[in-house]
Design a protein that fits this description.
With 157 residues, this protein is mainly α. The chain has six helices and two strands. The longest helix is centred in the first third of the chain and has 27 residues.
Length: 157
C-alpha cells in the first residue's frame, strides 16, 4: 500500500472512530435532530446573516436541499427567517431561543470530546501542527480547484 493510500485510509479510519465514539452521546443529548440539522444550527449560530446560498456553499449541498432543511428547522422552532430593511429580496436566518439551546448542547459535547482527546493533542509539537495544517490547507485547495475544474457550481445545483 502506498503512502497516499495509507493517509487516506488513516483519515477515513479516524473520522469513523470519532463518529462511532461520539454518536451515542450526540444522539442522546440531541435526540430528534439529524446531524445535518445540528451542523446547520451551528453554522447559523456562528455566522451573521446566514442565508440559503451561504449554507449551501458551506455544506456542499444544493440550494434546494438547503432550503428544505431550513424549512424543517423553522417548523421545529429552531431558526427563524428575517429580512433587512435595506434588502427585502434576501432572506436570512438566525437561531431562536430553542435553537440556541441546541447549539449550546452541541458546543458542550464538542468540548467534552476535545477534553477526551486532549492527551493526544498535548503531545503534538507546534511544528507538527503547522505541517498538518499546511497539508490540510493544500489538499483542501486542490479539491476546491478540482471542483471548479469539473464545473460544479453548488449555487446553481
Amino acid at each position: 500500500m502506498n503512502k497516499e493510500d495509507q493517509v487516506m485510509i488513516g483519515f477515513r479510519d479516524l473520522f469513523n472512530k470519532m463518529a462511532h465514539l461520539n454518536k451515542s452521546k450526540m444522539n442522546a443529548r440531541l435526540k430528534g435532530h439529524k446531524p445535518s440539522e445540528v451542523h446547520c444550527i451551528e453554522y447559523i449560530g456562528s455566522h451573521l446573516d446566514s442565508n440559503v446560498t451561504k449554507l449551501a456553499e458551506a455544506f456542499y449541498m444544493t440550494r434546494g436541499a438547503t432550503s428544505k432543511m431550513t424549512k424543517r428547522l423553522i417548523e421545529k422552532g429552531l431558526i427563524e427567517s428575517y429580512q433587512k430593511p435595506e434588502n427585502k429580496k434576501e432572506i436570512y436566518f438566525r437561531l431562536t431561543e430553542q435553537g440556541i439551546v441546541i447549539n449550546n448542547v452541541h458546543d458542550d459535547l464538542h468540548k467534552e470530546f476535545q477534553e477526551r482527546d486532549k492527551a493526544v493533542f498535548e503531545e503534538v509539537t507546534e511544528e507538527q501542527f503547522s505541517r498538518m495544517l499546511t497539508f490540510v490547507e493544500r489538499y483542501s485547495k486542490h479539491l476546491d480547484d478540482e471542483i471548479k475544474k469539473q464545473g460544479i457550481d453548488i449555487k446553481s445545483e
